[in-house]
Amino acid sequence: MSEAELDLVPPSFVQEGARKMGEKSWIINVNDKVGHLADITETEMKDWEQHSIYRLPACVTDLNKNAYKPRAISFGPYHHGEPNLEPMEVHKERALLHFLNRSEKSLEDYIGPLREVLQDLKDAYDILDDEWLQNSDAFLELMIRDGCFMIEVLRTSFADTQTGVVDYAHNDPIFSNHGKLYMLPYIKRDMLMIENQLPMLLLKTLLAVDNQNAQTDEESINNLILKFYFPHSRPKILGKCMHVLDAYRRILLWTEPDSQKPTRGVCKRGPDDILSARELEESGIRIRKSDSTSLNDIHFDCDTGILRLPQITVDDVSETMFLNLVAFERFHVGAGNEVTDYIFFMDEIIDNAMDVNILQRHEIIENAFGSDKAVAKLFNSLTQDVALDEHSSLTAVRETINGYCKTKWHKWRAALIQTYFRSPWALISVVAAIVLFALTIAQTAYGALQYYEGLDNSPSPPVPPPHRS
C-alpha cells in the first residue's frame, strides 16, 4: 500500500488494527506464561523467601505516616536522599573513617566479600528502584556506609561515660556522651522501622572482615543489638535474624526453655472476645505479673482464677515499635503473629483509663508515656485495620477466661468481694455487722435459756385440798 493510500485509511481503522494486534500479543503472552506456570511459581517463591525488608503500601502508611517515616537517619535505599535526613550523611562518612581506622584494613578489604553477596543484599528488599538495580556500585557504597555507621552506633552506645566514647572527639555530635543523650534516642527509634532496615548479612560480612573471621558468630551480632536496646538483659540465643527489627522482635518474645506455663483448668469454653481489666476483676479474676517479660508469657489458671501478663514499659517509642513489628508480621510470610496477638489481647482488656490504672497497680504496665487515658488510646489505635488470626495462640486463653467469667459461683463470689471487701472500711463494717448479729443471737439465746431455766426452778403451785361433798 502506497503512502498516499495509507493517508486515505480512516484513523479509527488504524486504531482498531493496533488494538487487535495488541490484544493478540497479550493473549499469546498470557498463554505462554500459563504453559510455564510451574517454573514461574518456583522463581516467585525463591524471590519471596529472600525478601525481608518491605516498602509499605499507602493503605498502611496513610493510617499513621509518622510511625513509619524516619526522623533522623536513613538506613538502606528506601528513604535515602530525603531532604530532612540528608544532614546525617556527613556523620555516616565520619563513622566509616573511624571504622576503617580502628580495623586497620582498607576499604577494598570489605568491598570484595560484599560483592560476593551483593545480589543477596539486593534480594532482601522486596522492591528496588532502577537506580539501585542497575547501579551496583552505588548500591554497594550505600550498604557499606550505612552498615558501618550502624555497627559504630551498636558498639559505642554503651561505652564508658566517664572516659568518653571510643576514639571519637569528646564533642562529637553523634558519638560523644552528649550525642548519646540527645541523638541516640532518635537513631534507636529509626532503626526499628521496617522500611529502614539493613540486611543482617551485611552486618555479619562487615564484622567478619573486621574480625578476620569469615564464620563470625551470628549471636555476637544479636547480642550487640540486645545490649543496645536492653542494656541490663542477659545474653540470649536468638537464632538467625534477618535484620535489627527481627532481632528486636525475637527479644520481646524470648522465653527461657520450658519456662512458659500453659493455660490450664477445666473451665467451660466461652466466646473469643474477653472483658476489660475492670470487668475481669469484677468477675473474680485476679491479674498478676508474669515471671518473665516475654510477650508470649500470657496464661490463665482456671483453678486459681489468676491471669498472668508480662510487664511492659509504654513510652514515646512504643507506638512506632509496635506498628512496625505488626507490619513485619503482616508482610513477611512465616514470621508469625505473636506480637499482633499480644496487641489485640491488650486492646481487648483496655477500654479506658481505669483499665490502664488497674494494670499499673498490678505492675503490668509501666507508664512513661503520659496519662492513663493516653495509654488506653494508644493500645486502642494499634489494631486499626489489622486482622486477627483465627488460629491465634491466645485463643485458648480467651476462651478459658470467658468460661470462667460465666460460671455463676465465680460471679457471686466476685460480687461479694466487690461489694463487701473492696476497702478496709467496708470490711470493718461487714465484720462489725457479723459480730453484732452474733451478739444479738447470743443475747436472744441467753434470754430464752434464762426464761426456761426460770420455769424449771419456780416453786410448784400448792395442791388443792380434796373436794368434800
TrEMBL record:
Keywords tagged on the record: Membrane, Transmembrane, Transmembrane helix
Transmembrane segments: 425-449
Pfam families in the record: DUF247
Domain of life: Eukaryota
This protein's name: UPF0481 protein At3g47200
Naturally occurring in which organism (per UniProt): Coffea arabica
Gene encoding the protein: LOC113703037
